Amino acid sequence: MNNDIERVLYSQDDIKAACKRLAAEIATDYAGKKPLFIGVLKGVIFFMTDLMRELDMLTDMDFIDVSSYHGGTASTGEITLVHDVGTDIRGRDVILVEDILDSGRTLAYLQDRLMDRQPSSLKVCALLDKPEGRVVEAKADYVGFNVPNEFLVGYGLDYDEYYRNLPYVGVLKPDVYAK
């Protein structure tokens, strides 16, 4: 797998530092509260786990699973709900946790879906933000890193369900997905 990586953007140490920084920001903003973290599967699993380990506060968690890439390297624009949240979020402080904010379509879809359920508040925490990839307006409240408009894998991010288990975020060589 490592041979398929053009370059590493963020190492394990970079990611750990970002998780600590984001957790400190969240802990300050939610002091005295018990926020519900909703992770967007599958890519968020490593980030959400490491982020929550850095929080010294009472939290709850749930997951939602949507798909928009369907095996390609760019969002198809068609969002499919695979698994919905099981927790009642009415009146709750919710933090939606994403691995990457790219086109913005998935985030806009999820925000609309969750706001219909009347949470007390809804904020977004993304490890990676790719502003150049936006096709709809979308913004994260907490961002680990701004990234270039390249195809990234590792630390939960995949290409055709592979590379998620790399311990870093890297740029996938174009010849890998051009095949």
What does this structure look like?
The mean pLDDT is 94. The protein has helices spanning 12-29, 45-53, 105-115, 174-177; strands at 5-10, 36-41, 60-67, 80-83, 93-101, 121-129, 142-146, 152-153, 169-172. It has 4 helices and 9 strands. The longest helix has 18 residues, at 12-29. It is an alpha/beta fold. The chain has a single domain, classed as Rossmann fold (3-Layer(aba) Sandwich), CATH 3.40.50. A 6-stranded mixed beta sheet has the order 4-3-2-5-6-7, sandwiched between helices. Residues 12-159 form the Phosphoribosyltransferase domain. It is found in: Cytoplasm. Pathway: Purine metabolism; IMP biosynthesis via salvage pathway; IMP from hypoxanthine: step 1/1; Purine metabolism; GMP biosynthesis via salvage pathway; GMP from guanine: step 1/1.
